[in-house]
């Protein structure tokens, strides 16, 4: 067996570091592209009953309203959307369909925004869609409301948690949230593990 010299280390160490970097980069790219989880049927946690909007406040498909849902440990920024088709965890009121989602990105906890113009979204988020979506301005992740908030582009791998809705007369109420509430990745996971 040959003994390694200092001269051997001159090429072994950089080669190993380069190989490790490309292995990490390849694994990360694979996880971002193919490791995304789809939203299933939600598991709900009871919460306070909060009036969000009236059906007349969202007259057209893709109308939206931001709201804040109170939690035991703070508040959850959320969005109510009128979508063109029923969604798992959504609410139907005749021919109108609604979905409420958390606005906390499941990647690093930034606040996502509703992107009503898909063309502007293609420029701002580098994600092309034929309908509005939710975009994270921090790392340019995109979430699709027509797939119940699934992460469809960028680093986020988990869907946005849904807010449970109830209808009384023509008023839409938020009455709970999906658990786990925020399956965040990275550093933000430790911050919100108890929520």
Can you describe this structure?
This protein has helices at 6-34, 118-125, 187-191; strands at residues 44-54, 64-71, 74-83, 91-93, 96-102, 113-115, 133-135, 142-144, 150-153, 162-168, 171-178. By secondary structure, the protein is of the alpha+beta class. The strands form two sheets. Strands 1, 2, 3, 4, 5, 10 and 11 form a seven-stranded antiparallel sheet that branches. It has a four-stranded antiparallel sheet with strand order 6-7-8-9. The protein is elongated.
Shape type: elongated
Q: What fraction of the residues are assigned to beta strands by DSSP?
A: 25-35%
Low-confidence stretches: 186-195
Helix and strand composition category: alpha+beta
- Termini separation (Å)? 56 Å
Largest sheet: 7 strands, antiparallel
CATH architecture: 3-layer Sandwich
Q: Tell me the domain tally.
A: 1
CATH topology: Rieske Iron-sulfur Protein
- The CATH superfamily is known as Rieske [2Fe-2S] iron-sulphur domain
């Amino acid at each position: 067996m040959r003994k390694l010299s200092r001269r051997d280390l001159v090429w072994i160490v950089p080669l190993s570091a380069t190989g490790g970097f490309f292995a990490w980069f390849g694994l990360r790219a694979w996880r971002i592209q193919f490791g995304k989880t789809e939203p299933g049927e939600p598991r709900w946690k009871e919460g306070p009953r909060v009036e969000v909007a009236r059906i007349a406040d969202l007259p057209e498909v893709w109308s939206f309203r931001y709201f804040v849902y109170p939690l035991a440990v703070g508040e959850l920024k959320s969005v109510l959307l009128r979508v063109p088709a029923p969604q798992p965890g959504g609410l139907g009121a005749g021919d109108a369909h609604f979905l409420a989602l958390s606005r906390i990105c499941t990647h690093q906890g930034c606040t996502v925004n509703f992107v009503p113009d898909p063309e502007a979204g293609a420029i701002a988020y580098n994600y092309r869609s034929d309908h509005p979506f939710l975009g994270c301005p921090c790392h340019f992740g995109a979430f699709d409301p027509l797939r119940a908030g699934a992460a469809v582009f960028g680093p986020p791998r988990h869907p946005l948690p849904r807010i449970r809705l109830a209808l009384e007369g023509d008023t839409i109420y938020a009455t709970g949230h999906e658990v786990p509430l925020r399956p965040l990745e990275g550093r933000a996971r430790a911050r919100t593990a108890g929520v």
